[in-house]
Amino acid sequence: MDSEDRIERIVDIYISAEAVREMKFKKDTEDFNTAKPQTPQHTGSDGVKIRSSRAAGVCLGLLCVLLLTAVLVLCVFIYTKSTNYTQERQQLLTKITNLTEERDQLKSERNELQKRLADGWKYYQSSLYFISSEKKSWTESRRYCRERGADLIIINNTEEQEFVKIISGGSEVWIGLTDIEVEGRWKWVDGSSMTSGFWASGEPNSYRGKEEDCAINRSSGWADFSCDYMSKWICEKSVLK
């Protein structure tokens, strides 16, 4: 082999070696680029989307808070209303019970009044009056009245005095007035003192020094008599009792 052939052979070997090194460098570079993590690149459109998503999340959170607040307020409102309705219902039931009791009481009083009127009692200014047809002493007359839930009449005013004259026809009737405890200190059967009276002229007088400790009503007015005197009487009873 001449010298030219050797030179060409050497050149070919050198070129081949360079080609191999270049190919290996490219492969290493590609492998490095493949293994290197790629940093994501955000475009302007991606930024807008992110900001929109965050705004939507904030709005959704606010809506949830507002909704929860509204639910709580509504629950409190409903509870308060329910409590008020319960109290009002209880008050109405109590009123109904009271009205029912009052109605029953009025019915009972009406029935009692009708019964009394049927038995000869007379009604005047919220009281019932009974005038006897027989005669008894003052003590016995009072016992008769008390056995019937009443007492001898107490005359409080001029109108009642005139009423007594009418129902008695002007006849003598025992009234609930006596000074049997202290002479001259006249008291009604309920224990109250007599403040004003309708005594006839010259009465009371304890006629001829006799013990006249009980009062009778006459057409001319009141007079003191012996409590053993036999006379008719008038009982009085409140319709509210």
List the helices and strands and how they pair.
Blueprint: H1 3-35, H2 44-118, E1 122-124, E2 127-131, H3 138-146, E3 151-152, H4 158-168, E4 173-178, E5 187-188, E6 214-218, E7 221-225, E8 232-238
Parallel strand pairs: 4-8
Antiparallel strand pairs: 1-2, 2-8, 3-8, 4-5, 4-6, 6-7
Keywords: Coiled coil, Lectin, Membrane, Transmembrane, Transmembrane helix
Transmembrane segments: 55-79
GO molecular function, one term: carbohydrate binding
Question: What kind of sheet is the major sheet?
Answer: 8 strands, mixed
**What's the CATH C level of the largest domain?**
Alpha Beta
Strand content: 5-15%
Tell me the domain tally: 2
Number of strands: 8
CATH architecture of the largest domain: Roll
Q: Residue ranges: pLDDT <50 for 5 or more in a row?
A: none
Q: By CATH's scheme, which homologous superfamily of the largest domain applies?
A: Mannose-Binding Protein A, subunit A
Overall geometric form: rod-shaped
The total count of helices amounts to 4
CATH topological fold name of the largest domain: Mannose-Binding Protein A, Chain A
